[in-house]
Design goal:
Layout (H helix, E strand, L loop, with lengths): L1 H27 L3 H12 L7 H11 L6 H13 L13 H36 L4 H15 L2 H15 L18 H11 L1 H27 L2 H8 L4 H24 L8 H6 L5 H10 L3 H29 L7
Helix pairs in contact: 1-14, 2-3, 5-6, 5-9, 6-9, 7-9, 9-11, 11-14
């Protein structure tokens, strides 16, 4: 197992280098006039340097004055030291802006992830054990409805009902108008109150596919020969379902969930943008719209790292859950 993990880590490093190079090439393929536009905007700020000085600095900072390979090597050398440059959109170091926004997304994603598991997996198991009953049909309809709902539509519907009609929540933002005048406990409650609708959106949109996936895998296991043998031996139905069937259903589920764990740090771009929550998804969207190359490159490489980590976690968890798996 250790040899397998080491091998996967080495392969992941090479994949990451290749992906980062592709991202760099795409950024270098942007029109050169855009870099001139950024330099011109910065030169117009009070007390700023001249346009020529900005062009020279920006080109040198991001290796635009070099060839693609030397420029990438220069960027990669700085990235290995943790220097991703300054964000053009937020005018602070990229890593500083990332640290300020990523934990909001992690809290939202973490709560939504836990609720998704607690809701979707039990309902999927119940639907499978009560196949072709009203309970199964009801759960299936709910799952299909959640799976089919576009994020922007459902979020807009929640805002219309609970923000505009009922007035229970603000339309967007992370804090209320009187946030600075509140006590520490009240500030915490105010932030939590503003995260209710975004978390509900994330949970409802995501539980549909997990419910269907759980139900499908559970039905497949329940029709296996060893389940019929367990029932023939006189074991109780609860022990057959939750001790034998559910444990084997966990194998594909853990693989799926393991791959989604790193996504907790990636942010929910659409949801955070619709609710104006300053998480990493919202910040990355604003950066991309503004043409913030330093932050966009960092975020895309960060996403690549999360994807590789997710695949590695899935493979490891697969072997942990299923003791029959032995990797040479």
């Amino acid at each position: 197992m250790k040899k397998y993990i080491a091998k996967r880590l080495i392969i992941s490093v090479f994949i990451l280098i290749f992906v980062a190079f592709i991202i760099y090439v795409l950024m270098r393929s942007l029109p050169t006039s855009y870099l001139e536009q950024v330099a011109r905007q910065k030169s117009m700020q009070p007390g700023s340097k001249s346009f020529e000085e900005w062009m020279e600095q920006l080109s040198a900072t991001y290796g635009m004055d070099k060839g693609i390979i030397p420029g990438f090597l220069a960027w990669a050398g700085k990235a290995l030291r943790g220097d991703f440059g300054d964000s053009w959109r937020w005018t602070v170091p990229v890593t500083e802006k990332f640290k300020d926004s990523v934990w909001i997304s992690f809290i939202m994603g973490g709560i939504a992830f836990i609720l998704e598991i607690l809701i979707a997996i039990p309902l999927g198991v119940i639907a499978a054990t009560k196949q072709y009953t009203k309970t199964d049909y009801t759960i299936t309809i709910v799952a299909l409805a959640c799976f089919s709902l576009p994020t922007f539509f459902f979020a807009s519907l929640l805002k219309l009902v609970f923000c505009v009609k009922l007035g229970w929540f603000d339309l967007g933002g992370l804090i209320g108008r009187n946030y600075e005048n509140l006590s520490a406990a009240a500030k915490f409650a105010d932030r939590a109150h503003h995260l209710v609708l975004p978390i509900v959106t994330l949970v409802v949109i995501s539980i549909g596919s997990l419910m269907r996936y759980t139900r499908t895998n559970m039905l497949e296991v329940l029709n296996a020969d060893y389940i019929r043998t367990a029932r023939a031996k006189g074991l109780s139905e609860s022990k057959v379902i939750y001790h034998h069937a559910f444990r084997n259903t966990l194998i594909p589920l853990v693989t799926m969930l393991g791959g989604s764990l790193p996504g907790l740090f990636a942010g929910a771009l659409i949801t955070e943008t619709l609710y104006s929550i300053p998480g990493i998804g919202y910040v990355s969207y604003q950066s991309m719209v503004a043409g913030d190359i330093p932050f966009s490159m960092f975020y895309l490489v960060f996403m690549a790292v999360l994807t590789l980590i997710g695949n590695l976690i899935s493979d490891i968890l697969y072997a942990v859950v299923d003791p029959r798996v032995r990797i040479a």
